[in-house]
Amino acid sequence: MTSLEVRGLVKDYRLRDGLRSTRLRAVDDVGFTLDHGRTVALVGQSGSGKSTIARLLLQLERPTAGEIRLDGRPVARRGAGLIRYRRLVQMVFQDPFASLNPHHDVAHHLARPLRLHHPELSRADVDARIRHLLERVQLDPAMAGRRPHELSGGQRQRVAIARALAPSPGILIADEPVSMLDVSIRLGVLNLLATLQREEDLGVLYITHDLATARHFSDDILVMYRGRIVEHGPADEVILNPKHEYTRLLADATPDPERRFGPAPR
Fold first, then answer.
1. ABC transporter domain: from which residue to which, for each copy (predicted)?
2. Which CATH class is domain 3-101+169-254?
């Protein structure tokens, strides 16, 4: 029953141009709540601040201002509290080619988080969990002995999803999880994430630039523009009745076969 709450989140970067220093505000007063069993899409163009929010939520960077709360409590900076947070909040990265170490096999990638977050498991338990995780992402357990270069892009991303599930998280952050994959396999990976979200009762933050998939796979949509949330609400409401001009521009840029080619023949 995990809940992630963001309050007044701000992230500034210092940029140097010779002797002059300037400030870039990448995230500006962002707030939202992600509850278990819900999928929230964070939508915006490249450079809008979406991935910066992901890094802040993962504690890879510290916010300039604001706070992140897990189950109503501020995130600890160190110690057992931070370890617990990192177990409960997991990430599926955009690039499955870069997020897996080419020198290690699939079993290693899954065993490492299991041993880190579940040290009580025996070697036999870890092996059983690895088989179960691969089956959960619809991969043959025999793939445990393969290295990343022996897998397709879609298979690598499924391994990355299995790795994120290994610590038994409550929150999953998926940062453009299919943008690096062939178009023909994107839907299968998104359907897998939707199935896992329902069956594991996960809270999922789906970061994307694609309003069409955001509407299809999300309960709520947050539209981000220049570091700020400019519109939010239920997915259908945001898509069908956009209030902000930027949301309307995103909707107009979404491919619509009927608008381009006319209705499909019956």
1. 4-251
2. alpha beta
Given a contact cutoff of 8 angstroms between Cβ atoms, the answer to whether 68 and 75 are in contact is yes
Residue spans per domain, the chain: 3-101+169-254
Give the largest CA-CA distance in the chain. 66
Q: What is the DSSP string of 15-59?
A: EEETTEEEEEEEEEEEEEEEETT-EEEEE--TTSSHHHHHHHHTT
- Tens of pLDDT, residue by residue over 111-170, are 999 999 999 999 999 999 999 999 999 999 999 999 999 999 999 999 999 999 999 999
116 and 90 Cβ atoms separated by less than 8 Å: no
H or E stretch including 110? Answer: helix 106-117
Closest CA to 91 of 17, 189, 163: 163
Looking only at the bridges linking them, the beta strands covering 65-70 and 3-17 are antiparallel
Whole-number Å distance between alpha carbons of 159 and 110: 8
Cα gap 103→105, rounded to integer Å? 7
H/E stretch holding 192 reads: helix 183-200
